[in-house]
Design a protein that fits this description.
It is a single chain. The chain is α/β, with parallel strands linked by helices. The chain has 2 domains: about 5-95, no CATH class; about 115-170 and about 205-385, no CATH class. About 35% of the residues lie in helices and about 20% in strands. It contains 12 helices and 12 strands. It has helices at about 5-10, 10-25, 35-40, 55-70, 115-140, 145-155, 185-190, 200-205, 215-230, 260-265, 330-345, 345-350; strands spanning about 80-85, 90-95, 160-165, 235-240, 250-255, 270-275, 280-285, 295, 305-315, 325-330, 365-375, 375-385. The chain has a 7-stranded mixed sheet with strand order 4-3-5-10-9-11-12, with helices on both faces. A hairpin with a 2-residue loop joins strand 11 and strand 12 (about 375-385). Helix 2 (about 10-25) packs across helix 4 (about 55-70), helix 5 (about 115-140) crosses helix 9 and helix 9 runs parallel beside helix 11 (about 330-345). The protein is globular and about 65 Å long.
Length: about 400
């Protein structure tokens, strides 16, 4: 497992995984606690503050994601399985089964956070891998599924599909290690002090028109894979470069919520939509407008977040007459949960079991909830739905 590119391109992840597996096999599971791991694996001082330095929790969360992706490769269902349950640093082992179910979420390899050119190449590789995974996942396996019925109004059109990805101004980085800094970012900040200066390549990279959120990239990979598997052509544009007239050329797939103006505009009149009041973001129900339980406070520490929500809609836009699918979460965790929901047919089958018989041709909305544990999104759960 650690020889796979998911792990071998990093020092931190294979070292952590080797250590916890070895200590478990030695029967020393009582030593697998956050502070002990911080000292033994990452060389932290025994008295370090685990609240301000969450390197163990962050590493374990990323390893859980990479393990899930590792076992999605065909043929690996016959390997001994290693799992790391949320909230635990003790690995679990299971013998291979004859047929293993696909994991609920597929997460790409880590994309570095800085703007050096080779990172751009790495991002391109990640997107290509996601598209390939989407092609394999969405390729019809025979029979009619509710998930295929959801996408059918988009796929039936002969017009190219427009994928519009939300964009937001990129302001900075979140360093992995203490005292890690970005001289490139400091250079850009100085650049901004002189708005009349020519836009350098450094500054261009940090502009919103050049950046999208990683959860939105995950969602895009599977949407693109769906369209390729169905033989459909598509265009990709950032929200900053999309005009309303572009939405009338064919079916539209909007990725992102508060970072995508078209999602906010087109979903605004629907029963379920995105709302914000200061630091609080929530999914509003027009039939119960005072209810704000499906909310996230953006001013709270992100590691304190325990639940996130997403909204998936498929509706015909009244002005253009085109089918629009909008997908977005209150935060990136919600977007990842929406991606998991739209990637696994069993979620849609379970959700539409009690739906009206003609729901396939109706406008639809699904409100998704997901549990967030140590900075990782859990499986999706539908908490509300509407057909009209």
């Amino acid at each position: 497992m650690v020889a796979d590119p998911l792990f071998s391109h990093s020092k931190r992840y294979p070292n952590f995984l080797r250590y916890i597996v070895q200590r478990t096999l030695e029967g020393a599971t009582t030593e697998l606690k956050e502070r002990t791991l911080g000292v033994a694996v990452f060389g932290r001082d025994p008295a370090y503050d685990t609240n301000t330095d969450p390197i163990v929790r962050a590493t374990a969360s990323e390893i859980r994601r990479r393990i899930a992706q590792y076992y999605q490769v065909p043929g690996r269902e016959n390997e001994l399985r290693i799992d790391l349950s949320p909230g635990s640093y003790i690995p679990e082992f299971a013998l291979p089964t004859a047929a293993s179910a696909p994991a609920a979420a597929k997460v790409p390899p880590e994309v570095p956070q800085r703007g050096h050119p080779w990172y751009l190449a790495m991002a391109a590789v990640v997107v290509a891998a996601l598209i390939l995974a989407g092609v394999l996942w969405f390729r019809p396996a025979g029979g009619r599924t509710a998930l295929a019925d959801f996408w059918r109004p988009v796929l039936e059109s002969s017009k190219p599909v427009l994928i519009c990805i939300g964009q937001r101004r990129f302001l900075g980085t979140s360093p992995e290690l203490p005292n890690d800094s970005s001289p490139d970012l400091e250079r850009v900040r100085k650049d901004l002090e002189n708005p009349n200066a020519p836009i350098s390549l450094f500054r261009l990279y940090y502009m919103g028109s050049q950046n999208v959120a990683l959860p939105d990239v995950v969602m895009f990979g599977h949407v693109a894979g769906l369209l390729q598997a169905s033989g459909r052509t598509y265009l990709v544009r950032g929200g900053a470069s999309t005009t309303f007239s572009d939405l009338g050329d064919g079916p539209v797939i909007l990725i992102g919520a508060f970072n995508n103006d078209f999602t906010m505009r087109l979903m605004g009149p629907l029963r379920f939509n995105f709302e914000r009041d200061g630091d609080v973001f929530w999914i509003q129900d027009r039939q119960n407008p005072t209810q704000k339980s499906r909310a996230v406070d953006y001013s709270a520490p992100y590691l304190k977040l325990t639940e996130d929500y997403a909204l998936i809609s498929r509706a015909r836009e009244p002005t253009t007459g085109r089918v629009v699918v909008a997908i977005g979460g209150l935060t990136g965790y919600g977007t990842l949960a929406a991606e998991a929901f739209l990637s696994n047919p069993r979620f849609m089958e379970a959700t539409t079991r009690q739906a009206p018989g003609d729901w396939r041709r109706k406008n639809t909305e699904f409100v998704i909830s997901t549990e967030v544990i140590n900075g990782g999104a859990g499986p999706p759960r539908v908490v509300d739905q509407y057909f009209w």
